[in-house]
Design a protein that fits this description.
19 helices; HEAT repeat-containing protein; three-stranded mixed β-sheet; 2 domains; about 5% strand; mainly alpha; about 350 residues
Amino acid sequence: MKISFKIVFLALAIALCSCKRQEQSADAEQTDLFVPAGFTALDQIVAEIATDGEVQSAFIGENRVTPRQWKRYEKLHEMATTAQLLTFMNHKSAAVRCYSFLALADKNADLAFPVLMNHLKDTSAVTTMDGCIQMTRPVADYLIDEVSLDHLYPTHSRFSKQQLDAIDRVLILDKSMKSHVKNAAISRLENTVEHYSLIRKLVENEQNGFALVQLAKYKNQNDRNLISTFFAQDTTKFHALAAVTEFSDNFFYPYVKKVFEDGEKNDNYSFPNWKACFLALAKYPNQETLNLFENILNRKDKFRNKILDKYLLLAITKYPDQQYQPLKRKIKLDKEDMDEIQEEL
């Protein structure tokens, strides 16, 4: 356990140092690139974006400074025409393509839509920085994530619902798409009669866990055996448990109970699986579930108890039942943990 704490501490230290370095470099003076004869000011901006190579947001670092790369983007947005931005979407630099799309989507969403459809398979890697979060991902993922904000804030959407639905359809139906943006699109699917066959095929043919959760929402008795197959492997148990939380049929109870019992025997058991297991079990307020939850409260491992008690309280608060009241009174958490639970709820 001491080793685990050291690893976590080291990882946090590295992340904070990286964040600080990014913040310092954002303010550092940089020598402008040499501009060959015939180059315009816009050409220089594009060249500097390409040389930097990272897509940085308006604010990065602990102190939320505005990096020079974002200031270049603002100049690109100001200076480039839509025709020029369309040309830059074919630039060899992934950063230039990403920033050009942002500017194009802001200036003319109708033109940006077919551009995005043509870049859904742009798998070139691009490093992005937003706040203190740095990651490397495909260009297509970045572009779609930006568009996905329109799903979250439809009243401020640049794209119409029909356009957003069209993007989602391509992501969902294309078997070659494996990234998180496809899973997000699946999670947005409305549970209509028309979508049922599509969702079930995604589960059967692609073993997609996000589609499994969507399928469970239909609560179709004919899907029980298919859902239960996801309990067979450790890599799919999380989504199986999430599916059962949506479809709490008694058929699944033995499967959920076994996940719980396996966790009790394994000190290194997955915390996400524990959390999903508690949520699923809480939908079955019977004496057997109460006994299982009591076992958790009686454990002697203080570190694990702190985490598991939090998951347990979250589960029985989210899915309350009178039988759980004695359990709630036994759980003692600090303010920070209680705030986390409230935030999740």
